[in-house]
Amino acid sequence: MSLSIRNQLPGTVVSVTPGTVMATVKTRLNGGQQITAAVTLEAVKDLGIAEGSAVRALVKSTEVSLATGPVTGLTIRNQIPGTVSSVATGDAMATVKVAVEGGELTAAVTKDAVDDLRLAEGSSVVALIKSTEISLAAA
Amino acid sequence: MSLSIRNQLPGTVVSVTPGTVMATVKTRLNGGQQITAAVTLEAVKDLGIAEGSAVRALVKSTEVSLATGPVTGLTIRNQIPGTVSSVATGDAMATVKVAVEGGELTAAVTKDAVDDLRLAEGSSVVALIKSTEISLAAA
Amino acid sequence: MSLSIRNQLPGTVVSVTPGTVMATVKTRLNGGQQITAAVTLEAVKDLGIAEGSAVRALVKSTEVSLATGPVTGLTIRNQIPGTVSSVATGDAMATVKVAVEGGELTAAVTKDAVDDLRLAEGSSVVALIKSTEISLAAA
């Protein structure tokens, strides 16, 4: 199966914290970064996700934000540092590719944001992804 | 491959409108509803998505909102009518399952919203999904 | 530090409702509007978010929908009225800026939606934001 979801990061589940309807799943990516996904408890059960499970973390490009440096005091759990490898700009939107440890991320952001942050090839950035925007695929 | 993404609706692509970096893809679901997905142009090319392509529309539960009836004058392109089949409530969040033509949708919404709208088994609802929240899988 | 996240609204936390893994945080914006954010409980604890905390509500442009008037019977908790100040249209997507009490919001929506709703400078709109799409930054 091919997915339009641009960001697919392989890793291994470190812990699962089940709630009543939601669960948070922490995964160590193959690139070394740790990420947190908030998914439905039902999905965790259906996929048999547990500590040690091989998964891929899936993130739609439109869910990836960029910061020009690490951000403290933020509820966004996932911060992945990297370097901009390319920027494609349209009239309203832009896609920014970011080389990160172990792979590449694509972020779809507004053209305004690219202009304001002066994002260009070589810019150091931190990709920000809200936990609720990460899905998991059983690898 | 198994996905934590709860909502996977099969259909056939009706049209593709390419922009510079994004594209909108209209799909007729097997249940008869038409939906619009805003994905990166790159994804459309990589997957070879074109009129007639068999796809599945993927939507994370946290991206599905519910209304108690059709809503006009709204930028949200996708409105799928259905009937609540079950509600599971936690302390902060709730999951609502909605039977729709041709399948079922799961929405993860706040407990507050379930209480305010008095959602229960049998409630008529319309599921609202923003185009940027729909991914596509080549079937 | 600069963020690609276009929408950053300052406010003060009014209440926190913790679940097992998620929490809902109600914040009164400086513009007077009240908003609800659904974030991980872990994030609330890490940031020490409690009643009275000064925060900024962060919302990615792709997560903001627009309606031409208030919508009732909707699970989307956050409805912020305003007036369109500008529209930038691409082939597939458009960005709409909305002046709201105390600031400005940017919404990235499909070009189709802008055409259908005839959004233009001066249009009265209500910005709709799902609770799960709001992140918080400690101010």
Automatic annotation (TrEMBL), chains A, B, C:
What Gene3D superfamilies does the database record attribute to this sequence? 2.40.50.100
The domain of life is: Bacteria
Question: Keywords, A to Z?
Answer: Molybdenum
Domain Mop, chain residue ranges per copy: 2-68, 73-138
Locate the transmembrane regions by residue number: none
For this protein, the record's Pfam families field holds: TOBE (PF03459)
Asked whether the keyword Repeat is assigned, the reply is no
Keyword Repeat tagged? no
What is the protein's name according to its record? TOBE domain-containing protein
- The record lists the organism as Streptantibioticus ferralitis
